[in-house]
Structures are given as C-alpha cells and as structure tokens.
Write a structure and sequence with these properties.
The chain has a 4-stranded antiparallel beta sheet, covered by helices on one side. A 4-stranded antiparallel beta sheet has the order 5-6-8-7. The chain is of the alpha+beta class.
Length: 171
C-alpha cells in the first residue's frame, strides 16, 4: 500500500513475474477488483516486474484504518494478520493460504535418500511469523520457526515438515 496524502497518491500494488503471471493478474483484475471496487486496476511492466495498481482512496483507507494493514516504507516488517481474521479459523486459514501462495513453498527434501515433504513460509515480519505459528499450532500443525539472515533483515522461516502434516495441510 502506498499512501501519501500530501501528494494525493493512494494505491495498492501487487507485483509479480511478467513471464508467467500476466494472465493471473488480468483474472484478479476482472473477477475481484472490478466487481468489488467498480473500477479496474492498471496492469503494467516496470523494472522487470509485473505490476497491478489499484487507485481507490476509500479502499486504501479501509485497508489501513479498519484492517490495520501498514503502508509505505517498512510495511513488510510491520505486517500482521488483521485481528478480525486472526482468531477465527474459517478466516485465518484463508489468510494463511494467501500468505503461502505468495511467500511460501512446497518441496521434497532429501533426508538420507528418502523424499521428505516440507512446507515453508518466509516473512521478515516477526509478528506475522508468530501469529501464523500460533494459529497453526492451535490446529496441531506443529510449525517450527527458523531465523535466517537476509540482507539487512532477519528472515523468519515457518516450516511444516513430514508426510502426515503435509497431508493434513491439503485436507
């Protein structure tokens, strides 16, 4: 979210890979943004990145003031799951699904010659990592957090490991 009242600029920007996500961005624009806000976002390619910008001041202010989603610099470090979704599994599971879609990975690790299924979510927000772990712990996913160094930030890596927990994830 970019919010600069003094410059009268208010927008939500989603970035992606121009090689394989343009069709998905067009789908989001037509099936979600246009029906919800009665206007389309602008899709462009800039600095090797695909960008979908939505200029809609009331929507941006709703995200910031009602859901407490941070804007501008260092928003990645401040992001949290909105309180309205945090304590209700019917909502929080979809929030975690979205976080996993954007910042997660599913892979098979090689453990002593055996394939070992793993799910990991990466974030530089300590609070977000704690909230995701708490929610997943309540649902008996047994998540683990590892702290790694990434550039000038700590990277919090939330992991769910093993065949039974991976199967549970997809149920």
């Amino acid at each position: 979210i970019y919010y600069k009242k003094e410059f009268r600029k208010y927008y939500l920007e989603i970035t992606g890979n121009p090689k394989n996500e343009k069709e998905y961005f067009e789908y989001i624009n037509q099936r979600l943004i246009k029906p919800l806000l009665n206007k389309e976002g602008k899709i462009s390619i800039r600095a090797r990145g695909l960008r979908l910008r939505v200029y809609h001041k009331p929507f941006i202010e709703f995200l910031m003031h009602e859901l407490n989603i941070p804007a501008n610099r260092n928003k990645c470090k401040k992001i949290r799951i909105p309180e309205q979704f945090r304590n209700k599994w019917n909502f929080s599971k979809w929030v975690i699904r979205g976080i996993t879609d954007t910042d997660g990975s599913i892979f098979l690790a090689n453990k002593n010659g055996k394939k070992y299924p793993s799910i990991e979510i990466n974030t530089i927000s300590k609070k977000l990592s704690e909230e995701v772990c708490n929610i997943l712990s309540e649902k008996k996913f047994n998540p683990r957090i590892r702290i790694c160094q990434r550039y000038d930030n700590h990277l919090y890596r939330i992991g769910i490991y093993g065949e039974s927990l991976t199967k549970k994830w997809f149920e």
